[in-house]
Amino acid sequence: MKMKIYEQNIRIRFGHCDPAGIVYHPQYFIILNQLMEDFYRDVAGVGFIEVKKYGLGFPVAGVRCDFAAPSRVGDECTARVWIEKLGETSIRFAFTIHAGDELRLQCTETCVCVTADENDRLVKAAMPAKLREALEPYLADATVKPLQLRA
């Protein structure tokens, strides 16, 4: 089975941009977070709030990001996400944002599956089998190289 890539069209809006008229870099993280929210809902059938019903959370443990070219108000971009690594308690996602053939951003984000212990501290937890099964089609196969980030 060929791996899947989740894809979404993104329009760069005035509110994403700084006074120079290009995307202010923290706004990319908001865009990526919205993409992840849709990915979890569309792929795993569970949104960020619903996952709490299972006593789980997926906080971000690390991010690496390269801003390859500026995006401006009105740009029509395509955001893509897939999984570079699916561990027992963690997931490393890969993201790209393109405008046409031009790479604008590439990023990896590692999330950890956690639950709260009796003292309400977050501790690593095994990912539920149902969630793992939903995510596996998005796991990079041998034909996909990990993103080569400068950062």
From TrEMBL:
The keyword Repressor does not apply. It comes from the Bacteria. Signal peptide: none annotated. Gene3D superfamilies: Hotdog Thioesterase. Keywords: Hydrolase. PROSITE patterns: 4HBCOA_THIOESTERASE (PS01328). It holds the Pfam family 4HBT_2. The keyword Heme does not apply. Belongs to the 4-hydroxybenzoyl-CoA thioesterase family. This is Acyl-CoA thioesterase. It comes from Sutterella massiliensis.
